[in-house]
Amino acid sequence: MKIEVLGTGCQKCNALAAAAAAAVQQLGLDCEVEKVTDITQIMAKGVMMTPALVVDGQVKASGKLLSVDQIKAMIQGK
């Protein structure tokens, strides 16, 4: 599983990355949360508002800060 947090490094982007890492840890998953800050890569995924959460190449949310529980549900496909 690959999890990416897309954002330029703002406070909300960093908070989403921390929440995603916490969700991965709580679920006991063996995967890394990657932060993508390059605007070209972000736009290539069709994201116009950050922060955004991408799970296995699929944009799950953009333009909002998610809670750990919301991220866990998205990772589990609920």
Summarize the structure.
This protein has helices spanning 11-27, 39-44, 68-76; strands spanning 3-6, 33-36, 52-55, 58-62. By secondary structure, the protein is an alpha+beta fold.
Give the tally of structural domains: 1
> Describe the biggest sheet?
4 strands, mixed
Mean pLDDT: 94
CATH architectural arrangement: 3-Layer(aba) Sandwich
Quaternary class: single chain
The coarse overall form would be globular
| Helix and strand pattern | EHEHEEH
Strand order of the largest sheet: 2-1-3-4
CATH class: Alpha Beta
Provide structural commentary.
This protein has a single domain, classed as 3-Layer(aba) Sandwich (Glutaredoxin). The longest helix has 17 residues. By secondary structure, it is α+β, with helices and mostly antiparallel strands. It is globular, with a radius of gyration of 11 Å.
Pick out its properties.
78 residues; Glutaredoxin; four-stranded mixed β-sheet; 3 helices; 22% strand; globular
